[in-house]
Amino acid sequence: MKSAEELAEHFKKFPGVGPRQAKRFVYHLLTVARGNAARIADLISALPGETAVCPECKRFFAKDKNNLCPICRDPRRERNTLAIVCRDVDIEAIEKSGSFRGRYFVLGGTIPILDNAPERHVRLKELILMVSKAASSPDNALAEIILATNASPEGDHTADIIKASLAPIAAKSKFRISTLGRGLSTGTELEYADSDTIGNALRNRKDNSR
Ligand SMILES: [Zn+2]
Known about the structure:
This protein has 210 residues and is α/β, with parallel strands linked by helices.
């Protein structure tokens, strides 16, 4: 069963999926009706064509005639506050809380502790470019960057590296860098936090600029 083994290898790389679960997924696909399995395969193939990456915030969104995602092109969103998140799902969690009116930037991952090549894991160069541009734009002065990372050692480490990378621009352009207040208990991933907890963490955020 060459395809089954290869498929299991792919499933193993999915977030939160281990080798045993990967095999269970493969067996599940073998037991569902042929039509369903074919439909799943079709949906996976269609996904890249139906989605686009927003050139501003780097999140995935359903492709339409617009270049920017619905949040970046919304004139009602505050342009002076930027939340930096690790993954697209974190945006969903924060949006659901209804406690944030600014814009986002998706890093695309976290930086593992003891790793000295952060660019391999997150969009650091793109972030620096985006922030420099926003900070120097005369009409949209950036006032605050919120590092909205998970309350985990890796999340904290990622926030530390990002903060250090942005500190020179922050000092020059006079914007604050803050982190989420820990209404989020240690180990909490934003993705699984409820809206009240996220709202509190945003309200109690701490200024980390100095
Ligand atoms: Zn966007």
